Amino acid sequence: MEDRIEIIEGDITRQKVDAIVNAANTSLLGGGGVDGAIHRAAGAELLEETRKIGGCPTGEARVSKGYCLPAKWVVHTVGPVWSGGRNDEDALLAGCYRSCFREAVKLGIKSIAFPSISTGAYRFPLDRATGIALTETRQFLLTNKTIAKVMFVCFGERVLNSYKKAYARIFG
């Protein structure tokens, strides 16, 4: 199973995978951070399509084409805003990963790249979020063989180190 997971530092918009995951807001119309970078790299057609999708609730996922991205698909998911853990943030974040994997399977995706969902502007504690991400990924990979590669594309060394530490704990 470990050979199906890759953790790298880099730019998610440049990954040559079937799908990239967008850490979106509920409108799906672009924003800052990963969301803004994906919208800029994909081009204006992405905004046109996400307007038609009509938004996405927290913890769920929606799919669009990748347009000018190397990835054919963008799986948009809305992570929770951290409120101290009092509003089911852990369950909502886990739901993001489960929803993304569900959408990926429906599309026949063989490779998918995730950013660190909710750990930027939404302030979800990084180590807690990476633990959830890798736990959900492990659970998915144990029961599903359709996806050959799950990448975690980390923005910065701090995020990369958190993912590596969580990986060692969960897969070690």
What features would you describe in this structure?
This protein has 172 residues and is α/β, with parallel strands linked by helices. The chain has a single domain, classed as 3-Layer(aba) Sandwich (Leucine Aminopeptidase, subunit E, domain 1), CATH 3.40.220.10. The chain is built from 5 helices and 6 strands. The chain has helices at residues 33-42, 44-53, 89-107, 126-143, 157-171, and strands at residues 5-9, 19-24, 61-65, 73-78, 111-114, 149-154. It has a 6-stranded mixed sheet with strand order 1-6-5-2-4-3. Helix 3 packs parallel to helix 4 and helix 4 crosses helix 5. The longest helix has 19 residues, at 89-107. The chain is globular and about 45 Å long.
Mind telling me the C-alpha Rg?
Answer: 15 Å
CATH architecture: 3-Layer(aba) Sandwich
Residue runs with pLDDT of under 50 for 5 or more positions: none
Q: State the share of residues found in helices, binned by percent.
A: 40-55%
Within CATH, the superfamily carries the name Leucine Aminopeptidase, subunit E, domain 1
CATH class: Alpha Beta
Domains (count): 1
Q: How much strand?
A: 15-25%
| CATH overall fold name | Leucine Aminopeptidase, subunit E, domain 1
Q: What is the approximate shape?
A: globular
Mean pLDDT rating: 97
Largest sheet: 6 strands, mixed
Q: What structural class results from the helix and strand content?
A: alpha/beta
Order of helices and strands: EEHHEEHEHEH
